[in-house]
Design brief:
The structure holds two protein chains of two kinds. By secondary structure, chain A is mainly beta. Chain A contains two helices and 26 strands. Chain A is globular and about 85 Å long. In chain B, helix 1 runs antiparallel to helix 5 and helix 4 packs antiparallel against helix 5. Chain B is globular, with a radius of gyration of 21 Å. The N terminus and C terminus of chain B are likely disordered. Chain B contains 15 helices and no strands. The chains are: A mainly beta, B mainly alpha.
């Protein structure tokens, strides 16, 4: 190094100019290649003839290859018909479908798109964040979604979640349910780090279950839209999913502190207060879906799997290259 | 006549004041910092998006990955400082730090989806950042006339912040142009970082080229023995380290201020990332004037006033003033706080450093401050949880006021007790 600083000013200037040309050229070339290799994002709307099938309980999911919502159909070529809208996260129930679609660019923003049974757009909002969870209540009246928010702190690169609730009957939107009065372990609770995610509605369109995280712990929280209050029921529960009969909750339980497979899928019985793991032993990071009263479906490793809810049996793959399972009934 | 113990003996006895030029070395160091910061802030801005969206990591995994390397930085900084001091290898150690950070971008690019490699790359970047800071600041100290240290550090910090402002903008522009091609951001960041290393190698003189006033290099190396903490034997330096820790422990951390602002104003979260840009812009504008003022008034006063500005920012959040006034006021005061303290603390420390132990001495001050800030952030978070934001803010305000009062008594007034034979006489003017 001293030899180089000892070089004449002229030599140094030439080396700098050369480095500038080489590195600048390399950077420009790489950027141009990256820009040309990508087509402009498709419009992302559904094919006109692609709708949610009535009856039969067909399984729908996001097709990883195209990013579009597909009907899983073993008879079709490739095992699916991908004619739906482009979504990163999708859920449907009743006469409503909810599609979360990220917009490219920074800061992160996403579209929240409400669709009817024919997958025609009813309402569209643009909100900050990255899609994480989407749920529609059984009646199709209540919608909830969770986004990861980035940049809460510029210096630290951490995430927090924002969960919103939309009542389609009144059009009333709660952009962030964080301010809901929370009772934790029986006491009114205030903290700056309270985060909610993974809402699941009860059949009455009023009660809901969700995850609340604070102080490094997660809790199952039961919320009430009418009284606008929430209370925690038990600890170490994430992404609850209420069974169709409203008696059990499937959830993610943290079983390891490491980054590898930290969660297991459990089912909690609201009447007896007992929980048991399902036969899936791998680390599931998804909000499970009850495909009927006895079976759960979830995404893992780029595919969709299913397992009995009672802890028996073994996991079974329903579809490859897919995520965000939902059922049309 | 001030004995230029840590400055260039060959510097002409230029008149003090506005017209004197900032040493070329400081400008070179500032340019390298600017380029390197563009490179590193580009990656910082997109990394969370890349890991979670691009690779599908859960935020939990990301948090673990991110936290993994943060704790080690303080230790690495001390290590970098101590190594640089041994035989005056500031340039080599600092260059190694810059090179390591630049190469980490290549690691991100080549890692693909492998979590282990990504963790390694992030760790290498942090390691590089920790290693290079103290040697770089030591070089600024070594190549500036002691009476101009404030301005030298102010100039350097202004250039550094410019890079930090440009980095995210460059990354956002790239993502926009390439429709979210994260690899392009890493590739460009690597090229920019590599250019920074080239500039460092070619434009930054090593320690060896400017023998100290004390005598030939060999003598400096001999005197530097005695371990990293040897400098603490000098009461002036010891007090500065203590005050850095004390004041650090009384600052609650920017993220809390931004969170408080957002709660108060309840604006769209999209704009959240832009709050720090506002504070950084003020920092950028005021860094040089604050440094210059520090050279004229003595450096302890700007340091104390700067923390006073921070206390005002806390207070402003408690007042019922209109939201816009609070927002602009807090951002301006926060920028002023950084301008009046960040480089000024280094400039204040400069004259009290043991000859041949500059990098280690500065590293110790920075580490003490960083660790104290870490602790105070945890404490403030806990207090907020226990008593609510207002009470916590009042407590922070009281603590900060107390810390400023204590520091006003403790900080050396410019007459440092000798650290040993031939001890540097501080060139700080009394105020």
């Amino acid at each position: 190094m001293p030899a180089l600083t000892g070089a004449s000013t002229r030599t140094r200037v030439w080396i700098i100019v050369l480095a500038l040309l080489l590195l600048g050229g390399g950077a420009t070339a790489y950027t141009l290649r990256a820009a040309s290799g990508r087509d402009a994002a498709a419009a992302g709307t559904a094919d006109p003839r692609f709708a949610l099938a009535a009856g039969g309980g067909a399984l729908y999911a996001r097709d990883t290859a195209t990013g579009r919502v597909a009907r899983v159909d073993p008879a079709a070529p490739g095992g699916r018909v991908a004619g739906g809208p482009v979504c990163d996260r999708f859920h449907a129930a009743g006469d409503t479908a909810l599609c979360l679609r990220r917009r490219p660019g920074v800061p992160a923003r996403s579209y929240v798109i409400v669709l009817d049974r024919e997958l025609r757009e009813v309402r569209r909002m643009s909100l900050p964040g990255i899609p994480s969870r989407a749920r529609v209540s059984a009646s199709g009246n209540m919608l909830a979604w969770t986004m990861f928010a980035t940049g809460d702190s510029y210096a630290r690169s951490s995430f927090s979640t924002r969960t919103s609730v939309l009542d389609l009957r009144t059009g009333y939107l709660v952009k962030n349910i964080e301010q809901i009065p929370l009772t934790l372990d029986g006491r009114r609770y205030h903290a700056p780090d309270v985060n909610y995610w993974g809402v699941s509605f009860a059949a009455d369109d009023n009660r809901f279950y969700a995850t609340v995280s604070t102080n490094g712990r997660t809790h199952l929280v039961e919320g009430d839209m009418a009284t606008w209050s929430a209370r925690t029921l038990r600890a170490n529960v994430e992404c609850p999913s209420l069974s169709p009969d409203g008696t059990r909750i499937a959830f993610k339980k943290r079983v390891s502190d490491g980054p590898r497979e930290p969660w297991r899928l459990y089912v909690y019985d609201l009447t007896t207060g007992r929980e048991h793991p399902v036969a899936e032993r791998r680390g599931i990071d998804d909000q499970a879906l009850w495909t009927d009263g006895e079976t759960l479906a979830y995404g893992y490793g780029g595919g969709i799997w299913s397992v009995p809810a009672d802890g028996t049996g073994a996991p079974r793959q329903l579809a490859r290259g897919a995520s965000s399972p939902t059922l049309a009934d | 006549m001030y004995v230029a113990t840590t400055g260039r003996p060959d510097a002409p006895p230029a008149p003090s004041g506005v017209r004197r030029r900032v040493p070329g070395t400081v400008l070179a160091l500032g340019t390298v910092s600017l380029v390197a910061d563009v490179s590193s802030e580009m990656v910082t801005a997109v990394l969370p998006l890349y890991l979670v969206l691009g690779l599908g990591l859960s935020p939990l995994q990301f948090g673990l990955l991110d936290g993994l390397s943060t704790g080690a930085t303080a230790l690495v900084r001390l290590l970098g400082g101590a190594t640089a001091d041994r035989g005056g290898r500031h340039k080599a150690v600092g260059g190694l730090g810059y090179a390591l950070s630049a190469l980490s971008r290549l690691g991100l690019l080549l890692a693909g989806g492998a979590t282990g490699w990504i963790a390694g790359a992030i760790g290498a970047d942090r390691l590089g950042k920790g290693v290079r800071t103290a040697p770089r600041d030591a070089l600024i100290t070594l190549h500036s006339p002691p009476e101009d240290l404030g301005r030298a550090f102010g100039t350097h910090r202004a250039m550094d912040t410019t890079g930090a402002l440009l980095g995210p903008l460059a990354a956002f522009a790239l993502l926009w142009a390439t429709a979210d091609a994260y690899d392009a951001v890493f590739a460009v960041s690597f090229c920019v970082g590599a250019f920074g290393v080239v500039l460092w190698v070619l434009c930054v003189p090593g320690r060896g080229r400017t023998p100290s006033a004390g005598g030939p290099e060999g003598r400096t190396a001999r005197r530097a023995r005695g371990g990293l903490l040897a400098g603490l034997r000098s009461p002036g330096y010891r007090r500065i380290v203590g005050c850095a820790a004390l004041l650090g422990a009384a600052t609650i951390g920017d993220s809390f201020l931004y969170l408080l602002l957002q709660r108060r104003l309840s604006f769209d979260a999209t704009w959240f990332p832009f709050l720090p840009l506002g504070a950084a812009a003020v920092f950028l504008l005021l860094a040089v004037p604050a440094g210059r003022l520090a050279d004229r008034l003595g450096r302890r006063r700007p340091l104390l006033y700067g923390h006073g500005a921070l206390a005002l920012a806390y207070g402003l959040l408690l007042t019922p003033l209109p939201d816009m006034v609070v927002l602009l006021g807090v951002l301006a005061l926060l920028g002023l706080f950084y301008a009046a303290t960040d480089g000024v603390l280094m400039a204040l420390t400069g004259p009290y450093l043991t000859e041949g132990r500059q990098a280690g001495g500065l590293a110790l001050v920075q580490t003490a401050q960083a660790l104290a800030r870490l602790g105070s952030a945890v404490a403030f978070g806990a207090l907020w949880t226990a008593t609510g934001p207002e009470t916590a803010l009042v407590a922070a305000l009281v603590t900060l006021a107390a810390a400023v009062c204590c520091s006003a008594r403790l900080l050396p007034r410019g007459v440092a007790a000798p650290a040993g034979p031939n001890a540097p006489e501080p060139s700080e003017r009394t105020d």
